[in-house]
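In this supplementary section we document a worked example of the pipeline. Step one takes a protein sequence of length 121 as its only input; no multiple sequence alignment statistics are reported here. Step two produces a three-dimensional model, which step three serialises into structure tokens for compact storage. The input and output of this example are shown verbatim.
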Amino acid sequence: MASQQQTQKFIDDVRLICLEDTRYPLESYLFVREGLDHTLKIMKRNSHGASGHVSGQELLNGIRDYSLKEFGPMTKSVLNEWGIKVCEDFGHIVFNLVNKGVLGRTQSDTIEDFKKGFSFD
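The serialised model returned by step three reads:
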């Protein structure tokens, strides 16, 4: 779990991102961060000694699981309210965080990893 200081730094970084890219509100970035934490917990539970790196597809699976737990049948409505209509929107959020230095990536990570996601329907 992140400290209060780390959380505030994340929020400050995201506010700067939101000034540059107005497609997604602060809440969408917070949700993706929570979805990443959820995904890492699942990966740690399922695989001892996990590397800590999450692929786009792994993150999408974790976000889908997390969003259904958090919002149930309202998931699509909540995500749409935040401007997230397709899985590639999660990729744009992630890569905005990567470009700001908030998240890391490997050479093989691309926005295309998020195009092969799932239907929100």
